[in-house]
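REVIEWER CHECKLIST
Item 1: Sequence provided? yes
Item 2: Single chain? yes
Item 3: Sequence as submitted:
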Amino acid sequence: MKQHHRNPRARGGRKRQPSRRDPLIGFEAPVTIEQIGARGDGIAHVAAPDGKSVLVYVDCVLPGDTVKVALRQKRGDGYGAEVIEEISRTEAFNPPRCSHFKECGGCALQHMDDGAYRNWKRDKAKVALLRAGLDSDAIEDLLEEVEVSPPASRRRAGFSVHVGATGVYVGFHGRFSHTVLNVPDCAVLRPELMTFREAFVGFLKSCPVDHARDIKEVFVTLADNGLDVLIHASNDPDLDMRQDLAIFADEQNIARLSWKVGDRPDEPVAARHVPRVNFESVDVPIAPGGFLQATREGEAALVNAVKEALAEIAPKQVADLFCGVGSFTFALALSGKRRSVTAVESDPRAVELLQYAVGQSGSPIKVVKRDLFRQPLTGDELANFDLVVFDPPRAGALAQCEALALDGPEWVLAVSCNPATFTRDMRVLRNGGYEIQKVVPVDQFLWSSHLELFAVLRRTQQ
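Item 4: Structure as written out by the authors:
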């Protein structure tokens, strides 16, 4: 009889070891907050049972606060911790503007007074520039004050949706949780978005439960001529749901309501008129869920910074890279003296909509579809321009900056929504002979850790 010998290296034969629970999870101790970290949470150290000092990150606190915390999860080189008891608060502590502040994960710094908050945001910009290789004195000379968008100004939001046995929830996730919280009095969003949220809760309550449960998220953008709503769901709507949505859109004066399942293209369910935004008196249509600057005030601050730079540089040929639907394109082409602009974008829908707006307005703009991550402008292409402007996603513009460092024009205007990738891209450009002339921090995400940076760079050496 043939004997079968088991392979001792076979994975299926190994006994699985039970996972070991981190003994510090759930550990409680009093701490005094030392500083505010890059994500807007407090940083402190706590003595663990073995006597070692452990770094903890604590939400909803300020430097000088003494609180009792419970460690909730491992986070980088430390632990995320939750306040379970307030022992003493500093005089700088402000009552939060929103009743959901401690539970909702949307804001980090509502409890900080306005002056300290502005200083903290400006310090974030300083850190980014220090890491880019500038010294402190140079930073003070070129860094301007932070442009902060006011409360109730954010014009786009993604609401999470949960329909369950305990009711209908349309809002944001809680801290340390995937639980969806209702947020009827958000202090950050435009009132029109909050009115929609309340109405949508009522709509879901009136729907058959099985249909309402299909909806997972709803993205709402306040365009210049009404709301654009994109629903993400797990299944297609049936005929009754389509009719109900059309009625809801009409009652709420929604410009367009679309439905999207998975990775499939979105489908318009109710299109009363095309949502549009206005750039330099040119109406530009937007795609469902398409990108816009988060606030009109933040957009205006960035556009004004671009216009001030144009007045000093006086370019004739401009490349607007990662242009989207033209947040800066029309300002580059039409403000002051008209100049020729080549606008480059990879999103085919944004390209199509921008081409339509350019054709309707007769602006001196050429729109090009191109993936600048994989195929940046290089060499002779860059030689056609005396100014390059770029505004990439959070991943930054590494490949394009490497090409600019080699063959870029005299002037570059950089816009970044991520200080970390801004630092990296500025290092590349500075190593290529550019020097930063001016930086404007723009805060469109009030009471959060996010910060946008606008920079003017000039080539000083080859």
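Item 5: Key structural point noted by reviewer: The chain has eleven helices and 23 strands.
Item 6: Recommendation: ____
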